[in-house]
Amino acid sequence: MGNKVLRLEDAAALIQDGSSITFGGSFLQRVPAAFVRELARQHRSNLHLIKASPSYDADLLALANAITSTVSGMVGFERPYGGAPNFRRKVELGTVHYEEQTCPTIGAGMRASAQGTLFMPLPPSALEGSDIPGNAGLKSIADPYTGTVGYAMRRLRPDWAVIHVAEADELGNGRLPLGAPPFWDHLLTQSAAKVILTTERLVSDEVFRDEPHRTLVAPYRVHAVVKCPSGAWPTPFFPLYDADDPAIVEYLALDESDLPAYLSSTEACDRGLAINRTVRPCAKEVVL
């Protein structure tokens, strides 16, 4: 399969304007934030974000005018930060189109892609009492065995999935620490056409051969691996490090005029040219 290790800036350059993209993690947990910032530095535009529960990723790309549409269930920063102000403002201005779905319907669309089907059926109880079927254009479908009418969610197949992991090898295997929640990440790697891994550290492929059951991401769809220590900062990567609360508060106070300076101030650490970013451990002992 060959060595897939690239610099952050070279991996981000693989994402073309107009691409559809999804990011690993959920809400404010283990966002591949360094990669998101690099997309903004490279002035990527007209991206289409597909993610059940984005936060910093959707908000920063909206602030950078990098996305024009999203398919999401909810966009927000969780407690104590609240919503995603830049994303909301762009939606209200009409510069970002927001297709509101639910986490289950987005998961169904991703599973349809992963399983090679055109759509995924949902039982009527999945959306009972909701406006989502009408607003999001879900189609009604009858169970051919019972006649029960449910819903069909279209296939969602992002061009790219970007996942941040704890360890990866040069071939494209990736894994999380023991105890770390995988969220949607395995499904994203199965549903997207191509995958990019950012990783806290590079390890030998022997690590994955010794414990194959712990492999979260298999290499056959991985096109690039990026060594990116603290690559989820300022979001947390449980159980390696906690959220950087002051940095998140600082980010949420930015407007568009502040963004170039913010991206410049984080560039050296993101690209591995400096090691001056400190992260707060959330556990004394971590089993990788």
From TrEMBL:
Signal peptide: none annotated. GO terms for molecular function: CoA-transferase activity. It comes from the Bacteria. Keywords: Transferase. InterPro entries: CoA_trans_fam_I (IPR004165), NagB/RpiA_transferase-like (IPR037171). The keyword Aminoacyl-tRNA synthetase does not apply. This is Glutaconate CoA-transferase subunit A.
